[in-house]
């Protein structure tokens, strides 16, 4: 079930159950996802494409052995992409009064989406967007159902992989970030290439960035940006050294559904 809301978090007047012509509020039958104990609520983020990729992963992982797909509700707000545009300022540490106000407004907007999903009867919420993840602590606070975090899901995957632990650090793992030169001369041009629809150029630059991190003794590279999702082909050898956080989130969501 896909649900689009207005900026205030309310249902759009045109919201219908696909193919039924019936308003959502009149379709809460016994077989509706709203009444199923394992229903997952999904808050769409800056990119509808990223949300669809997550849904594809969730459907594939949950039904690949002939089992029924996990029921889900997607709450997508087209306004959120504009609100999330402050990401670049946050990354650069530029949190002036205006930016802080926008940050808090975005947090409140995401909380309204969370409240809408809670009221819809979901039993777990996820937010499959790397940018939205910055607001996870604010949005998940006080949530009445489990609210999975992309970062926590990836950390569990790394722990299960038994990578090199440290006494202190992020989830006891040593984190190696791309240096300034890699960001300026490889990663930023890769995103610019994608904006120009130059997929091959972006893919080649991403390969270089991954190789740079591996040369710096990284065991695994986390592709933690929405733009790079699905950029490397499935048969690319470098993928064996990479983790897609959306895979980790989808698998954790499925694990939750099967444990309830």
Automatic annotation (TrEMBL):
Q: Matching PANTHER family, A to Z?
A: ASPARTATE RACEMASE, GLUTAMATE RACEMASE
* Signal peptide segment: none
- Origin species: Ilex paraguariensis
Q: Which Pfam families match?
A: Asp_Glu_race
Kindly provide the name given to this protein in its UniProt entry: Aspartate racemase
On the tree of life, the source organism's domain of life is Eukaryota
InterPro entries per the UniProt record, alphabetical: Asp/Glu/hydantoin_racemase, Asp/Glu_race
Alphabetically ordered keywords of this record: Isomerase
A molecular-function term among this protein's GO annotations = isomerase activity
